[in-house]
Amino acid sequence: MSQDRRVESYDRGRIEDVGRWKDWAKHKPGMWAFYLHRFTGLVLSFYLVMHLTVLGTGFWLGHTAYTELIHSFESLFIVKLLEVGLFAAFVFHALNGIRIVMFDMTIGLDVQEQLFYLSIALSFAVVMVGVPFFLLPL
Amino acid sequence: MATTQETGAQEATTPSESKATLDVFRYIPEEDDEPHTETYEVETFEGMTVLDALIKIRDEQDSSLTVRHSCRMARCGSDAVYINGTQRLACNTQVSELSQPIEVEPLPRFDVIRDLVVEMNEFYENMEKVEPWFQPDHEPETGEEYLQSPENRKNIDTVLDCIWCGACTSSCSPAATDSDFPGPAALAKAYRFYKDEREGEETRKRRLEMLESSHGIYRCHTQFNCTEVCPKGISPTEAIMEMSRDAVKEKLRFWR
Amino acid sequence: MSTKKDSQTAAWGWFFQRVSAVGLVVLLGFHFAVEHFIVGAANVSAGNTVERITNGLIQGDHILGQITINMPAFLYQASAVSLLGFSVFHGMYGVYNILMEQDRLKPYEKPIKYFFIVFSAALFVQGILIFLAFFEPFWQVYDPR
């Protein structure tokens, strides 16, 4: 039925406002939570594949090579910084994930924005506490 | 004000003679290859809405400007547009509260037929897919009336207000990327019937069965855009979360 | 309402995503704690990894000072394997879902699904092999020196 009424229309594409940067200022907490959760999820998934591969190759070469591989990575400061980033991604993804599981149990849907701010604040706090563990010894 | 005009003494700029600038998305398929933006200036009056401004532009400046509208009081749901980056009803948005220039565009993620008019057929099809009509599976308990308790009615108070404007579905990214996902409006509508105790257990189970799939209620990622933009204050997210919780409990029950 | 019905209910996938999520908060948190807070990433070696996996002995000398935790070996091993299983499932199922909600990938639904099943299995097997290689019967094979 609706096929008969269909008129010529201009397809602007589906996700147009992802590319419109000024719209980003209009995004509300719930949307930011979604973007960050998805971004950190992809970062962590990619890291998982890399982690298993790197450890695996270190491994096929034997225990000594494994230890040397880890030491050579950990001696680079950039690696320590990236580890802090990884930790931050994990902490946010975990805390926001808890927020989502709460929504799945229909708890806290009316305070969703405050819960997002709470997860951001807690993530920041936990990461700050953890930074010395990753960066030291210099 | 009338005396000033009669005497023509000076050019008074009383508050009611301030102006508003609107940047309006224009696209006339017979003439244009690509859409473009046209800027209009209108004189405002107290309490002017964006719809008032658009009608004024159409009446006084550019009669080719097209926008859907009908009731002008947020009941018919015709004039949902994208104003300054948010989905809103044009008749329900005050010009004075918006930052200038006011950018008016058709709803995102819908195809444009002309100017601010979008293709709504897909939206209506999704609404129809959830079978938005009363389907009792038993005879009424007493007489000819199906009885509903006030508590049960309270559950569906907000979702009953849906005016099918399409703002929520326009703001939802899974609705945009996944054509199998019905969208928040359709799911909230389904919830209205799912929650209604007058339909009976069998129908209730069947309704849930229709929706529970990875392209159905589980697709909601709790972006809450729908809840933010709904002009009637409905929260489709809450409705969807409740249904997915029930669906999972239902589906996993037999193995536990 | 979806026009397509999953052959098996998606409720299980949804449910296990949540189960693995909660499990990961605990297990991955523990993993970070052991590797980074107790032992310290630079101090990790094949030797102390063997100690942790085969004996459940977690020894570290990092910022918090000398810490020794003795846990039942089986418990540590179970946590390691669960961590592997949960993280592979949670991550791969998550990415799979992101791809499945894109219309333009609809024609490739079946191949993508099989790819993810195979890829996840491969990741899990890889992880198990790494895990096993820390046990004595296996490490002779893996250490050429």
Q: Could you say what the CATH architecture of the largest domain in chain B is?
A: Orthogonal Bundle
The name of the CATH superfamily of chain A reads Fumarate reductase/succinate dehydrogenase, transmembrane subunit
- Can you give the mean pLDDT of chain B? 87
Which fold does the CATH topology of chain A refer to? 3 helical TM bundles of succinate and fumarate reductases
Query: What's the structural domain tally of chain B?
Result: 2
Give unreliable regions of chain A as ranges. Answer: none
- Please give the oligomerization state of what you see: heterotrimer
Indicate the percent of residues in helices of chain A. over 70%
What would CATH call the class of the largest domain in chain B?
Mainly Alpha
Order of helices and strands of chain A: HHHHHHH
Shape descriptor of chain B reads elongated
CATH architecture annotation of chain A: Up-down Bundle
Gyration radius from CA atoms of chain B, angstroms: 23 Å
Q: Strand order within the widest sheet of chain B?
A: 2-1-5-3-4
CATH superfamily of the largest domain in chain B: Alpha-helical ferredoxin
Strand content of chain A: under 5%
Based on secondary structure, the structural category of chain A is mainly alpha
Q: What's the number of extended β-strand segments of chain B?
A: 7
What's the level 1 CATH class of chain A?
Mainly Alpha
Q: Give the DSSP E fraction of chain B (strand runs of 2 or more residues).
A: 5-15%
Largest sheet of chain A: none
